[in-house]
Amino acid sequence: MKIFSAAQIREADAFTIAHEPVSSTDLMGRAAGKCADWLMEHYPPSHPFYIFCGKGNNGGDGLVIAQKLLDEGYVVTVCLLEYGSKASEDYIYYYRRLQQQYAGRIREIADVTGFPELPPSAVIVDAIFGTGLNKPIEGWLAGVIHKINDQHPRHTIVAIDMPSGLKADTSSRNTPVIQAHHTLSFEFYKLAFLLPENAAVAGQVHILPIGLSPEYITHTSTRYHLTDLDMMRTIYMPRTPFSHKGTYGHALLIAGSRGKMGAAVLSAKACIRVGAGLLSCHIPDCGYDIMQISEPCAMCITDELPDHSAHFHEQADARYKTIGIGPGLGTATATASSLEKLLATYKRPMVIDADALNILSVYPSLLYQVPAGSILTPHPKEFERLFGPSANDVERLELLSKQAVRLQLYILLKGRYTAIGCPDGAVYFNATGNPGMATGGSGDVLTGILTGLLAQDYSPKAAVLLGAWIHGYAGDLAAAHLSQEAMSAADIISNLGSAFMECFY
């Protein structure tokens, strides 16, 4: 799914109006009607509604919603915020319609003292400002935002299109924003919905189709994308009848140190479970028995060194289709030296995670030796150590894209909506996964998945998109079976087979 900017969404509206054809008022009626249907599906008439409307098109949406709810017998109070801006033409059209039939349900608010007392079970609908907002909300309007947010523990708040105060494409940090339980948005996700800094304001996001022009959507390019199952099905490569283990590649996993062999085992199990033909694990000698017992499908190469870390002095050769390195590795000086030698000799795309990333952050010149097309998988702190701090999530996304282009690498920044920066400047957000995956070892599983997919001749882009998707999907299945609290990283691996079956069979 493409993620369009606020300007592109306005262009999509205008293109639809011009080419369907449909009037702007009818398109507004169509969109707001979808919202009214959603509200009536989720809340019976026993819930009184308080709909707060600005004077732009978002307020027009609120007026249409009010009319439809009133027509169906709901108790609705329309709170019109009277401020200096001129009302939009579509707002004026629907205001006049509402006033003709339900003038008694309209009240004007010109300052914070006009905020109504809300009865129990009231539902607040925020239709004050939508995607057109381009500056922070100030003055008494900010006071109204705070008043609405004060109702959050007692009353459900539903935002239309965007929580008022939230900017679609830029950071809204430290500005007044409605804290919604639900956001009803149209046709596309907005970038703002996918950023961690906005987690407390958008609530559950529901995307409602409103029939915007498919031609515009198809032919308009964008940097940002949200992955979906249809995309994954174009990436997935089914197995052929005459294939053999050599067909699916020989992967090398360099991982583990004393006390951290669990990370190596999780990565190895995940690598095999996603279909790598062969797997060799370069591990410290202290982990030999652990790996051989835990994952008999993996072959082992060991280092016999006193500090019990993997120094992988054996040079990686051409038999390995790819290498995954980092889980539980440690950051000893000898390990860093070994990584430097590896990067000097191995030129195929590889997966770099965990302690290997930490070594790169200490020796940043090594970043330029990482083979083009490789996949880096930092969590936010590792990303900051590698590339420096950012003032907000939007700036961090810009930095992610810039570094992926500069280094010609795929950089997977872990999070609720994992962001994947690509060498061509595009950024993909992964749609699968849940908070139950915020547990030790989950990232090690992802490293194994990505390594296993690269070994099977998936392109780096296909591997990172499919790997993130199937990792999150398996996590969703684990949470559904066990709960988010009780699941572990091992449960993600246990559900990989079911994830492949549900998605691709």
UniProtKB/TrEMBL annotation:
**Domain spans labelled YjeF N-terminal:** 9-218
Q: How does it assemble?
A: Homotetramer.
What residues bind AMP, as annotated? K414, G415, R416, Y417, T418, G443
Q: Which residues cross the membrane?
A: none
- What is this protein's name? Bifunctional NAD(P)H-hydrate repair enzyme
Reaction(s) the record says it catalyses? (6R)-NADPHX = (6S)-NADPHX; (6R)-NADHX = (6S)-NADHX; (6S)-NADHX + ADP = AMP + phosphate + NADH + H(+); (6S)-NADPHX + ADP = AMP + phosphate + NADPH + H(+)
Species this chain originates from = Chitinophaga flava
In alphabetical order, the GO MF annotations are: ADP-dependent NAD(P)H-hydrate dehydratase activity; ATP binding; metal ion binding; NAD(P)HX epimerase activity
Identify the domain of life. Bacteria
GO BP annotation list = metabolite repair; nicotinamide nucleotide metabolic process
InterPro entries according to UniProt: Carbohydrate_kinase_pred_CS, CARKD, Nnr, Ribokinase-like, YjeF_N_dom, YjeF_N_dom_sf
Binding positions for (6S)-NADPHX per the UniProt entry: 57-61, 130-136, 161, 263, 328, 379, 444
Name the Pfam families on file: Carb_kinase, YjeF_N
